[in-house]
Amino acid sequence: MHFGPKLHDIIRLRLIEEVEGTSMGKYGYVITVTEVRDEDIGKGVIQDNSGFVCFNIRYRAILFRPFKNQVLDAVVTVVNQLGFFADVGPLQVFVSRHAMPTDLNNGYDHESNAWISDDREVEIRKGCGVRLKIMGVSVDVTEIVSAIGTRDEWLAGC
To answer: How many CB atoms are closer than 10 A to CB 28?
Structure first.
């Protein structure tokens, strides 16, 4: 059924389904596959034990790879007395209370579950957009496990 004149189209679709939205470890997250040329799809090799065919494929893609000192916009997802978590696309970043600007690091309000600055001009709560700077990234073999951020001079919030 698949080994017909549209084989390369089927391979392209399968590649996109399998890699878009996944982590490639140290290379980052695959946002989208941009190009798969016919000449970049290798000849198939039949696997003896299953009868499946494997293809080596070269392709171009747009990746998201966070790095130390990168400034990113994020959305706050969890707020607690230790700091807050924020999502930047597929990446979750933790900002410790100790990495926040000095006017925020003692301003956790249990009642509103938010970090509030001394002058009450900045409030960080779930759903807020924040700008943060990446202090470090932990990478596993297959995925970017975590990132730690700071808001120092990159102060932006709700």
So the answer is: 20
